[in-house]
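job 3f2a | input accepted
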Amino acid sequence: MNRRDFLSMAGGLSGYTLLVRADGPSSSPPSRNEISAAFSQIAPPTALERRLEAEPHLTLVDLDADVCVAGGGMAGVCAAVAAARQGAKVVLIHDRSRLGGNASSEVKMHIVGADCHGGRPGWREGGLIEEFRLDDAVNNPQRSFEFWDLLLYDKVKSEPNIALLLDTVLYAAETQEQTIRRVLARCDKTEHLYRVTSRLFLDCTGDSRLALEAGAETRWGREPKSEFNESLAHPTGDRQTLGSSILFTARDYGRPMPFRPPRWARQVTQEMLRFRPVGSWDYGYWWIEWGGQLDTIRDNERIRFELLSIVLGVWDYVKNSGNQPETANWAMDWIGFLPGKRENRRLVGDYLLTQHDLEGKNGEPEDAVAIGGWPFDDHPPSGFDEWQKEPFRSIRMPEVYHIPFRCLYSRNLRNLLMAGRNISASHTAFSSTRVMATCSVVGQAAGTAAALCSRHGLSPRQLYEDKARLRELRQTLLRDDQTIKGLRNEDPADLARSAKATASDSHDLARPGNVINGLVRDLGGQWTNRWGAKLGEDGAWLQLDWAQPQKVGRVQLTFDTGLHRELTLSASAGVSQRIVRAPQPETVRDYTLSYLPAAGGDWRELVSVQGNHQRLVRHAFTRVEARALRLHISATNGDAIARVYEIRAYA
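job 3f2a | predicted structure (651 res):
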């Protein structure tokens, strides 16, 4: 849409304006009254006070932001929260009533990533997705996807810098001089039309709807092998993609539960399931996939129908073929109606990720901002209709890989970033980067970058080209526990880096100095980057001493949360058996933080905590002048050894 058309539609009126709070990350979430008051800003008390000639029944609301995020799946949620915690004013637009996308209760796909379902121990992602997973494991032991929806809603609503627009579809963009000026989004449920002006925009829609409206360069389908010399690429290029899936859940009701399919259900035979096992019935089946041979956006209604017909046909086979008599008491208790999409448009950035990058053949990028590690995981486009073939081709790369920042912003639009399954990648690379834990960490990277761009008045490309700002981005992500392989803490403001670390005791090679070496991950049972000590009757302590007194007002602690273990929410009992749905036993639970005053005297308590289950914990307090800091640990969540990866201290 050109500017004249956009302004004609937008009417040129100065509607109700929302100014999201820009006072930075809040030490405490907003109160119920504060949240309630914000609704009058996105839903003005006077209906139709401002409206467009073309939409006389919709109230026009103008929203101003530093960062506008389109799409509230895992990438969009992480992008919005990351940007807001960096102090940016954020508007988050989502076309569904529930956040989470394919991870929500509408689809119920469990989140997987670089650790490959625990098959690559130690590489579970850090940052926001780790925070969310840990909270979910503790507060949702019943494994309810609706409670996961609620957790994501709470995370977003608890950020005072985010204005959340649910059930709202972005449908137009004004672009001028290769820059998006503002977008239009409508919520027909509340009869509001939102006109959002922002410095930076993030497309996290999956379908790249914002990119489409703004005129960003995109790709669709499979590249030919010759384009990037990828051995796993399709021999000839085409527009076919991975298909979509609909899942279901079922349970044992303890009495016979007959099933009769509708007349339009597929007739499924044992031969069709030769490569598609039906050995468990509580949660199935990702391989009920279809539609990649079509347009997964335009043909979504047909895809929904065909997927439902396959789901019901497979369940008919399970229940009525006679080959699974033990399912007599089983019945479906939920079936998805929202196809879980895997692929359609991908944006083109300043760098396009290929198979060679994931295999480590191009070296480590200087602008690495996130990791991936899921295998190359390609599927036949027609999915279930290609039942003569294996439902997937999975090829594991030797190590986790890095995703460059240049893959997260548009090549031809100056202020458009992207996160999720639409980043700049070939189809072959996309077959790995598409999974939701990877999308989450990419979202955190893009949201943090957008906030820094807004703060410094830079475009994403300028941020990359300014090596000091690029270093700031990477160090900021590292401080927020984003996993970037091999990157050390070099934060000049971190006072702990100049301290001497001592401890009450040390387990094995878990030296106290490890907590200030700048790294926060150990692999294969190593104790290279963390301190640990067996808890005695008096607990265990870790101490930082300075040669000269330091003024300290904030302390950041990184604990061990068992990154070698898989952690996700799944409707599958088999997957869930491997997961601790509670505080992770290695994690420090109860502790105090104290300091030695510069003027002399005994230890004085700063913070006392009971019941911690998080990996990254921050404490702010009235600034003190300290000769030393001491972390005294009295209990973990079950393990006999107290473990700490890092201590940071700031003025």
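job 3f2a | The chain has three domains: 1-18+48-222+405-468, 244-335, 495-650.
job 3f2a | closed
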